[in-house]
Amino acid sequence: MALFIFYLVYSLIGWGIRVIMVTVVLRRQFAPGASVAWLGIVFLHPYIGLALYMLVGESRLGPHRTERRRQITARFRDPARHPGRLPHQTRPDAEPPYQPMVLQAEKISDLPVLGGNQLDFLPDAAEFLQRLVADINAAKQHVHLLYYIFACDRTASIVADALMQAVRRGVHCRVLADALASRTCFHRNGLGPKLVAAGVEVIPALPVASLRRRLARMDLRNHRKLAIIDGRIAFAGSHNIINPDYGGRRGNPWIDLSARFTGPIVGELASIFAEDWAFETDQEIEIPYPDSKNAPSPNGAADDVLAQVVPTGPTEPDETYRRLLLAAIQSSRRELILTTPYFVPDETTLLSLMMAADRGVAVKLILPQTADHFFAAAAGRAHYLSLLKSGVEIHLYKPALLHAKTTTVDDAFALFGSANLDVRSFSLNFELSIMLYGKTITERLRTIQKQYLSQSIQLNLADWEHRPMVSELTDRAVSLLSPLL
């Protein structure tokens, strides 16, 4: 009798969880695929489903923090509050081919296109570290670092030593690192306490409760990678402050891409650090915008680059990296090349890639042959057949894990930064992308992409159609969880 009562109570509570979770999931306004996935898990086993949802389903900042984040963003991006901010500039063409992309990116970010910039692409980890440390060593006023991963290894120690030396010279140094991905840095034996003791301000971004810290893909994260030195130099891209092998994880060494910027765009990048710093500390720091009277003309030197900063994040669900990427895909007319380490597209993005191929665009997707996340890789492979049948070329990079996130569209514009082609970058993580406009800079980035292509193998449709059925079924089963990866 007692067993029967226990089973009855257990079942009633289970059905109560199912009913409540229907309301919770629908009110969260997930994408339809994510809603179906969560409800499927909950109805299959309500107790396990509820536990999983409590751990990884609630990715919001919370209503109060979300509103506070929006207020900070609006304040920092209001031109009236920052008279030093330069106005929007584009080349004086009547209708440049990238104009629709300019409008879309500006709608998402509220940040202008600025000319008169110079940049050096840094595809090599050793060169990235060397240039970053050299600029920190030459800093006279401040060094601001914002990184998803600030590890406790040789690379991080070199950067930390440079920061501590800078502090001794009187330079104001601030480090903002993701609380979860950089958790070893904040450990009592990590670099964080040593930096604080030396006078560096070190703050964890988006801290989470101790019970949830061991979940590697838990919650929304600050996935940005950014360095600002003296308001004159900026580094942005996909490099983290960690050894190139990322701690010996699969596919090492990892191949990243960052750029070193000078020019007016540095002020816009500095404002992104200032926004994130204000959100975590309630402290506003001065943004070193260039003097608008001495600003470069849109018709500057031949190597000047038109650039636009596009930060995205979960506080504005309708203005995300997904919208930026879709606009880029839809703008393509001749050639579209994309690189990403994690390919977990939603249905709309997948359809956009196939439609681009349908209209004759040469679509080339470059992915790592060896991935470091089994589920993300499997979910991506489930879409290969549809893409190949549509004419999309899929190239698998062989030498290492390709971690660069790049897009080039025709001879018109390019896009790179921290965002992956996956659901997390679309709607969960704070990301930082840089739009680059014009034929010359687009070709510079495409040259790097072609180097990746030369070291990749192209998938063959006939071979892929005849791969083992077990592999195909496994990938398709995992893809059902794509909205949650």
Write the layout of secondary structure elements.
Elements: H1 2-28, H2 32-44, H3 46-57, H4 63-76, H5 99-109, E1 114-122, H6 125-137, E2 142-147, H7 154-168, E3 172-178, H8 183-186, H9 191-198, E4 201-205, E5 225-229, E6 233-237, E7 254-255, E8 258-262, H10 265-281, E9 305-312, H11 321-331, E10 335-339, E11 343-344, H12 347-358, E12 362-368, H13 374-381, H14 384-390, E13 393-397, E14 401-402, E15 406-409, E16 413-417, E17 421-422, H15 423-427, E18 431-437, H16 439-454, E19 456-458, H17 461-465, H18 469-479
Parallel strand pairs: 2-3, 3-4, 7-14, 10-12, 11-17, 12-13
Antiparallel strand pairs: 1-8, 1-9, 2-5, 5-6, 6-8, 9-18, 10-15, 13-19, 15-16, 16-18
Helix pairs in contact: 1-2, 2-3, 4-10, 5-11, 6-7, 11-12, 13-18
Descriptive report:
The protein is an alpha/beta fold and 485 residues long. 43% of the residues lie in helices and 19% in strands. The protein folds into 3 domains: 2-57; 63-101 and 112-305, 2-Layer Sandwich (Endonuclease, Chain A); 321-484, Endonuclease Chain A (Endonuclease, Chain A, 2-Layer Sandwich). A 15-stranded mixed sheet has the order 4-3-2-5-6-8-1-9-18-16-15-10-12-13-19, sandwiched between helices. A two-stranded parallel sheet has the order 7-14. It has a two-stranded parallel sheet with strand order 11-17. The radius of gyration is 23 Å and the shape is globular.
